[in-house]
Design a protein that fits this description.
Helix 6 runs parallel beside helix 7. The protein is of the alpha/beta class and about 230 residues long. Helix content is about 50%, strand content about 10%. It starts with a helix and ends with a helix. Helix 6 links the parallel strand 3 and strand 4. The radius of gyration is 25 Å and the shape is globular. It has a five-stranded parallel β-sheet, with helices on both faces. It folds into two domains: about 40 residues; about 180 residues, 3-Layer(aba) Sandwich (Rossmann fold). The chain has nine helices and five strands.
């Protein structure tokens, strides 16, 4: 009888210890999940806004659990983006927006298109700021192109890096005068000749996987607030 009682007691003790251990594990798991969510929430509602360069960006694969919303549509010009800010930006109530737009405006390298692109970029930024006053706005430079990789001009078209540089200077000046953050991605992507580096693109316009990796390395310090 005594032996049975000892055995029963031992089983009960093991059972109690198991319950405690399971409870601790669940508590630890909950705490870890809470910590993870708190960490993520520091960077909540980040919107990447733009055209095909944004649409093709492999956000999920690169940024994982960070709540980054990809809001880019291939072929979009500044004219297309301006009336779509409600559905592409405001409804997400973003804490920060990364704007990359304008390259499609310069497809034919016309002076009037350049002027309109600059004007519309300012309107887009001012509209975002007006509708979401606490949103932090980051404006990326328009990326360089490489005509040599697009002899048929199916992708690059008649864009010229000289024109892109001119537009970028105006965007940078606007950011400086209005305390917006300008990200000079142009200089990060060029080769020694001032063209979009061949290692970062396959068609002369859009980044390839290595190009997006480079872009990500530039953007991460801004996303984590250590720029």
């Amino acid at each position: 009888m005594e032996k049975i009682l000892k055995t029963t007691t031992a089983i009960v003790i093991v059972f109690i210890l198991t319950i405690i251990l399971i409870g601790n594990n669940k508590t630890n798991a909950k705490e870890k999940e809470k910590t993870r969510k708190e960490e993520i929430n520091k960077y909540e509602n980040i919107v990447f806004l733009g055209d095909s360069i944004t649409e093709f960006y492999p956000i999920d694969e690169i940024y994982g659990d960070l709540p980054i919303i990809k809001s880019g549509i291939a072929g979009y010009r500044t004219d297309d983006l301006l009336p779509k800010l409600e559905e592409m930006v405001y409804r997400y109530n973003p804490t920060s927006v990364y704007l990359l737009i304008g390259t499609n405006d310069l497809l034919w390298d016309k002076v009037e298109d350049k002027i309109k692109a600059i004007s519309n970029i300012k309107k887009i930024v001012e509209s975002i700021k007006s509708n979401r006053k606490k949103t932090k706005i980051y404006i990326e430079s328009i990326y360089p192109v490489n005509v040599d990789l697009d002899t048929t001009r199916n992708m690059v078209g008649y864009r010229e890096n000289e024109t892109i540089i001119e537009v970028n200077k105006e965007i940078e000046k606007y950011c400086r005068e209005n305390n917006y953050i300008y990200i000079n991605m142009y200089d990060e992507l060029i080769d020694e000749d001032g063209n979009l580096n061949k290692k970062y693109t396959d068609d002369g316009l859009h980044p390839n996987s290595l190009g997006y990796a480079k872009i990500t390395r530039v953007l991460l310090p801004y996303i984590y607030g250590v720029e």
